[in-house]
Design brief:
This protein has 91 residues and is of the alpha+beta class. It has a domain of 54 residues: Nucleic acid-binding proteins (OB fold (Dihydrolipoamide Acetyltransferase, E2P), Beta Barrel). It is rod-shaped and about 65 Å long.
């Protein structure tokens, strides 16, 4: 009986962790959609990887065509790949 109780408890904990992780992933994915089209400012030069500031938050980013984008340059977010924003300049 004790073995069944232990297995049931472990299974329940794993299910709770799985649901929590899926919930966090869904929330992040919904936030990604809201970022597309937003303006940002380059914080550390994109070579092509660097960071940008979006709504006061620092995000990893990369230029879409591999171009160098200097710090303080305004950019537009055109996509999200993994946890990195894909950005381009306005020209």
């Amino acid at each position: 009986m004790l073995t069944i109780a232990i297995v049931a408890t472990i299974a329940s904990l794993l299910l709770i962790v799985l649901v929590a992780l899926l919930s966090l992933r869904k929330r992040f994915a919904n936030g990604d959609v809201k970022l597309i089209g937003a303006s940002a400012r380059v914080e550390t030069a994109l070579t092509p990887d660097g960071t940008v500031i979006v709504s006061g938050e620092l995000w990893p980013a990369q230029s879409t065509n591999g171009e160098f984008i200097p710090a303080q340059c305004p950019v537009r977010i055109i996509g999200v790949e993994d946890l990195s924003l894909l950005v381009e300049t306005g020209h």
